[in-house]
Write a structure and sequence with these properties.
The protein has 436 residues and is of the alpha/beta class. The protein has eleven helices and twelve strands. The strands form two sheets. The protein has a six-stranded mixed beta sheet with strand order 1-12-2-3-4-5. A six-stranded mixed beta sheet has the order 6-7-8-9-11-10. This is Metallophosphoesterase. Keywords: Hydrolase, Membrane, Metal-binding, Transmembrane, Transmembrane helix.
Length: 436
Amino acid sequence: MGFVGMILTAVVVVHFYLWRRLVRASTTPGSRSRRVLTWVLVALAALMVVTFVGSRSAGMDVERVVAWPGYLWLAMMFYLFVFGLVMEVPRAVATFLVSRRRRTTALAEGAEGEAAPVDEAVLAGAAAQGGSTAPGTPMTGRPEPEGTAADVPAIDRRLFISRTASAVVAAGALATVGYGVTRALGDPVIERVPVRLSRLDPRMSGLRIAVVSDIHLGPLTGRGHTERIVRMINGLEADAVTIVGDLVDGTVAELGRLATPLRSLESRYGAYFVTGNHEYYTAGGPLEWIEELRSLGVRPLRNERVEIRHAGAVLDLAGVNDLNGVPSGDGPDFDRALGGRDANRPVVLLAHQPVQVTQAAAHGVDLQLSGHTHGGQMAPFNLLVTLQQPVVAGLASVPRTGGGDTQVYVTRGAGFWGPPVRVGAPPEITLVELRA
């Protein structure tokens, strides 16, 4: 109920803000446009709730129906909110200037009225012609220039400002989401990352490890998504392939056919997998996917390690389970994965979440490969990721127990979660080249 309550609260608060800024401020009271836009916003808010809550309980069939409109509106809602906050300052400045101009005009007219009394002759002439002065002629007896600011009521000017601001917000959000969709559904970027390891045997220098994470097979992806990733990885001619978690968002029965292209992964020393948090969210749990991947020729590393022998040298490749396995007794076990090994050998660790690097450093790991963050996926959301994870994307290092540093590389992931939108964080497949 905590997750559901948080989602409902966020949906209500953000939609109320959007209603006040984009609907109420831009329409007149009682107008048909206000009623229509209000009900449209209510319907979209309900769609959000169904997307997040209903699909989790109703299964993949319902999720496939609501996922596209629901998640696209989530992205639009997010950027409408972001652009709305950005426009608060210029909106406030424009409103202040309009109000100031109105006060200045009112004071000037008042002062003019005191300085120039009413011309009795003008009044008498007006009375003789029907009891009123000519249109546009003030009580001072002098005609008022046409086309001045006084011709437009102040409330109209404020309405114009609100409508202009709303148009800018809507256009900015729509353009950003449109761009983000093309990035999310396009080819991942190939990032080539050289990493120097002080304990690496020079004979092993040049060993290449392909890293892919957060593929997120689910209701918005098809088999072509997996086939493209496999094709791009094979084109790298890597010595080893590593999948560092969040492969799926569903059960084997629902998504198994989408994963079958993984059988075609090519590398000299094999393909390896560790669990991510989403493997623990599926109805069948991670074990069914562990067995499915074994049948596809991908070896899971469940708190264990293997030896990679290359050019007469040896490297340990280890993997630990994700932190979300802790409640079910299937969490990470660094002692089991790394205990009893030759401390003179370099070790590369697969761990889904970057935050696990602290334990990795305590166990003398040379390099940790992680995912999980998506690089923030939709900027400026990346600023919030730093509250939970030490690294959002790229290469970083932390002090290692016993001296030296443990390096951690965080890939942005090859897929997406939720909205099929990526802004400022394009999908990625990484080729890490180890160097002595």
